[in-house]
């Protein structure tokens, strides 16, 4: 039998590294208007405003390989040459072999403008999957559409995908490539007409406003199909009758990951326009209604099955009265289907009952990329007052990275504009917003995104005439001065007394501008505190490995004390304190005041930051200095003749019991680790609180740490396990756990928005963090069973904790 032969090579058998060559950038690069340059003079340095004599602006191409949504190689750069120099241009190479490329490998290309003092700004970007839909390695010249003013997105699906399959020019260039490879027979008269048509179309393209980047990839004599080397199986002796027949072999099926055509057809029939007419009046049976309500109770991390997605879609009109059903409905939409996407955003969203804040925050996460959905979420958030929005500000700043990765100026949700508007109306929000954005500017790969946001925020504050335009430069100068001196003292070999002396001399020196601050300056850490100078004689250096500074500021009210740190990433502590403040607000909304102390933390850089100082003592110091333990400490500061409170003021003991309960539950939910008597603090008025959150979300340096931290010293201060105070402590724990469990979706959504942030314990395992917190809430059981489980943990934990505390004390002793 005659058969057509198809010759190809396997990608795992190819030799050489991955490489490419930049050919040209086609399209009109428009200069900025003179009015724009006058308003923002630094833009004169941009490449588009410095066109060379040959008509080409000075541009670079920043390239990086991505796979599985992660960088596969370090970035490389290539100059964008004039057409005459293309043939002499060197190939840019990556330290990655072509044979090692995974199937989802992508080449992310960003065209950069040389921006003088501004550094480099993206003119546009495009992403090229190195294997096509048939799993064949792309070869030869590639035409890529450039998304303007963004950095290349190497994720799947990419927001900057450059491959286009439509248009006459695409078709004709494909014919040319096939002819040049020898796949088509040359016909001189026809080739001449095709070449002339291509030249004419490319001439129109060069004069157009849309940009296209042409790059060359290596060519091969035959198609190269994705394949991996078979791993040899260990030889295992088997009975003769079980030996598999020789001659069998495996091949890679490029269509194995494609959509199932039968399931796709079934989905289109179920969700057809004809069925949609009947769906408007469709009412579920009792069994179906129960199934729908069960789906609505799913946590935000739960992935809906195909059957559940179809069920939600079928009864979408019935569910419009359920605000919590909106996120489930949007997850059931097949966004690749233009008709479904249009109906979901233009028809269903206006009908739906407005969601609460928790669901609106979920819609700003990376799972929802449609700008219409994100804009809807922003409109819902705009209804919240500024004080509530400030609680979520840290996460909203992280959500900006997903907005800025969208294509074009029109693809913006309005989140940036909402935050800028609130920054102008509330200086406290504006200060926090600026420092949150500034801290992210040096992080990769989103640093460039936040640099653009920082410049836009600055311009907005100046245009609006906000006082922050004057305050922020003074704050930056203050932070830089304190951070530089903190670093110098940390690195010096002086003794601690000499470090303290040097610090006080620095604060008293008029040249540093810290002894007297006029006019008063709002602290970046706490914008409500307007300081007038420092008190050198009250300032000091802590006895610690990093030697943090204790700076005492003077103001119209009582002095304000902060801790300045260098060499420590405070972004994790900043996140924990924000979640503590949020949970305290949630509990207070239920009329439950647990006297939480969410002291302020501000990261001013990757290794710099400030912490509010709360007068208190570690439990370890209290136990060694006071014969009566924690009770003796509180009794000395707030004595009472009341025997039922062990000689301590009843208000103080009540504060102690409440704060112990609050921190017991919150640290359990967040999986705070490395708890010992040196990072458990007690204020004289009974406020108990935790510090130092280097271990979070279940991480702990100790083996088998107790999930709930209740040390024996805390129980003894309540009068023992048989006292009424300990019973009240347990009751408060159960009530607060149940209250926070009702708000689990809000807490989980806030943590999920931080997954791409540079938080050490999130960055270690970003795909598991939210699930670990979700497990603590026990959302798959009833409230009674969840509280009973927490009660069991509470009863067994204090005895284990005491053993670890003794081991920690021994370790501290031997370090001295």
TrEMBL record:
Entries under InterPro entries matching the protein: ARM-type_fold, C2_domain_sf, Kinase-like_dom_sf, PI3-kinase_type3/VPS34_cat, PI3/4_kinase, PI3/4_kinase_cat_dom, PI3/4_kinase_cat_sf, PI3/4_kinase_CS
Reactions accelerated catalytically: a 1,2-diacyl-sn-glycero-3-phospho-(1D-myo-inositol) + ATP = a 1,2-diacyl-sn-glycero-3-phospho-(1D-myo-inositol-3-phosphate) + ADP + H(+)
UniProt keyword ATP-binding, yes or no: yes
Molecular function GO labels: 1-phosphatidylinositol-3-kinase activity; ATP binding
Enzyme Commission code(s) on record: 2.7.1.137
Gene3D superfamilies for this protein: C2 domain (2.60.40.150), Phosphatidylinositol 3-/4-kinase, catalytic domain (1.10.1070.11), Phosphatidylinositol 3-kinase Catalytic Subunit, Chain A, domain 4 (3.30.1010.10), Phosphatidylinositol 3-kinase, accessory domain (PIK) (1.25.40.70)
SMART domains from the UniProt entry: PI3Ka, PI3Kc
Keyword list, A-Z: ATP-binding, Kinase, Nucleotide-binding, Transferase
Pfam family, one: PI3K_C2
Domain C2 PI3K-type: 14-187
Record-annotated PIK helical domain positions: 279-460
Domain PI3K/PI4K catalytic: 535-802
GO biological process entries: autophagosome assembly; endocytosis; phosphatidylinositol-mediated signaling
GO CC aspect terms: endosome; peroxisome; phagophore assembly site; phosphatidylinositol 3-kinase complex, class III, type I; phosphatidylinositol 3-kinase complex, class III, type II
CDD domains named in the record: C2_PI3K_class_III (cd08397), PI3Ka_III (cd00870), PI3Kc_III (cd00896)
Keyword Zinc attached: no
Broad EC category: transferase
Similarity-based family: Belongs to the PI3/PI4-kinase family. Type III PI4K subfamily.
Protein name: Phosphatidylinositol 3-kinase VPS34
Protein source organism: Malassezia cuniculi
């Amino acid at each position: 039998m005659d058969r057509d032969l198809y010759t190809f090579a396997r990608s795992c058998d190819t030799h050489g590294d991955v490489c490419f060559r930049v050919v040209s950038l086609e399209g009109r690069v428009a200069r900025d208007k003179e009015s724009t340059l006058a308003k923002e003079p630094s833009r004169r340095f941009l490449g588009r405003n410095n066109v060379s004599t040959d008509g080409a602006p000075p541009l670079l191409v920043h390239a990086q390989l991505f796979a599985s949504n992660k960088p596969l190689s370090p970035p490389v750069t290539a100059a964008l040459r004039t057409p005459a120099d293309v043939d002499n241009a060197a190939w840019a190479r990556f330290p990655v072999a072509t044979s090692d490329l995974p199937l989802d490998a992508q080449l992310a290309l960003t065209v950069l403008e040389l921006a003088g003092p501004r550094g480099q700004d993206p003119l546009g970007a495009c992403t090229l999957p190195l294997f096509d839909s048939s799993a064949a390695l792309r070869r030869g010249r590639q035409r890529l559409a450039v998304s303007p003013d963004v950095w290349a997105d190497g994720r799947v699906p990419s927001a900057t995908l450059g491959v286009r399959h439509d248009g006459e020019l695409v078709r004709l260039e494909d014919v040319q490539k096939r002819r040049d490879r020898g796949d088509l027979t040359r016909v001189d008269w026809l080739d001449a007409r095709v070449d002339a048509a291509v030249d004419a179309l490319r001439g129109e393209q060069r004069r157009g406003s849309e940009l296209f980047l042409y790059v060359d990839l290596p060519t091969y004599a035959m198609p190269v199909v994705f394949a991996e080397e078979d791993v040899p199986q260990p030889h295992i002796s088997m009975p003769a009758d079980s030996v598999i027949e020789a001659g069998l072999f495996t091949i890679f099926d490029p269509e194995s990951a494609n959509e199932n055509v039968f399931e796709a057809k079934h989905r289109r029939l179920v969700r057809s326009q004809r069925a949609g007419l009947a769906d408007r009046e469709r009412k579920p049976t009792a069994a179906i209604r129960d199934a729908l309500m069960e789906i609505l109770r799913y946590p935000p991390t739960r992935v809906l099955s195909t059957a559940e997605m179809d069920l939600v879609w079928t009864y979408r009109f019935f569910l419009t009265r359920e605000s919590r059903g909106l996120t489930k409905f949007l997850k059931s939409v097949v966004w690749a289907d233009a008709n479904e996407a249009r109906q979901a955003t233009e028809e269903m969203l206006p009908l739906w009952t407005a969601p609460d804040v928790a669901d609106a925050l979920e819609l700003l996460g990376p799972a929802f990329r449609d700008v219409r959905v994100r804009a809807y979420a922003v409109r819902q958030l705009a209804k919240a007052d500024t004080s509530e929005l400030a609680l979520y500000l840290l996460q909203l700043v992280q959500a900006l990275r997903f907005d800025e990765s969208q294509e074009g100026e029109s693809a913006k949700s309005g989140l940036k504009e909402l935050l800028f508007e609130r920054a102008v109306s509330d200086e406290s929000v504006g200060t926090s917003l600026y420092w949150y954005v500034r801290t992210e500017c040096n992080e990769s790969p989103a640093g460039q995104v936040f640099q653009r946001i920082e410049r836009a925020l600055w311009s907005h504050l100046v245009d609006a005439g906000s006082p922050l335009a004057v305050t922020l430069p003074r704050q930056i100068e203050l932070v830089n001065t304190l951070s530089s001196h903190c670093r110098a003292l940390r690195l010096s070999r002086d003794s601690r007394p000499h470090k303290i002396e040097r610090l006080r001399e620095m604060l008293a020196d008029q040249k540093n501008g810290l002894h007297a601050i006029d006019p008063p300056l709002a602290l970046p850490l706490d914008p409500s505190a307007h300081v007038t100078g420092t008190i050198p004689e009250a300032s000091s250096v802590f006895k610690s490995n990093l030697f943090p500074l204790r700076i005492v500021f003077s103001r119209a009210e009582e002095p304000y004390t902060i801790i300045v740190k260098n060499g420590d990433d405070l972004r994790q502590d900043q996140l924990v304190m924000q979640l503590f403040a949020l949970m305290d607000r949630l509990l207070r909304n239920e009329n439950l005041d647990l006297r939480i102390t969410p002291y302020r933390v501000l990261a001013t850089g990757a290794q710099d930051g400030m912490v509010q100082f709360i007068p208190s003592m570690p439990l370890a110091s209290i136990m060694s200095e006071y014969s009566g333990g924690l009770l003796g400490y509180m009794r000395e500061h707030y004595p009472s003749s009341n025997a039922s409170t062990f000689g301590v003021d009843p208000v103080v003991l009540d504060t102690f019991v409440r704060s112990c309960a609050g921190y017991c539950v919150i640290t359990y939910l967040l999986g705070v680790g490395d708890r010992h008597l040196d990072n458990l603090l007690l204020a004289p008025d009974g406020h108990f609180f935790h510090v130092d959150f280097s271990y979070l979300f279940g991480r702990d340096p100790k083996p088998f740490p107790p999930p709930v931290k209740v040390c024996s010293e805390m129980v003894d201060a309540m009068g023992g396990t048989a006292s009424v105070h300990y019973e009240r402590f347990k009751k408060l724990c159960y009530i607060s756990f149940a209250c926070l469990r009702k708000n689990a979706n809000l807490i989980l959504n806030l943590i999920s928005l931080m997954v791409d942030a540079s938080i050490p314990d999130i960055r270690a395992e970003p795909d598991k963090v939210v699930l670990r917190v979700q497990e603590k809430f026990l959302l798959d059981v009833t409230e009674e069973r969840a509280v009973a489980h927490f009660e069991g943990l509470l009863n067994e934990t204090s005895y284990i904790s005491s053993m670890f505390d003794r081991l920690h004390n021994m370790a501290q002793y031997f370090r001295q």
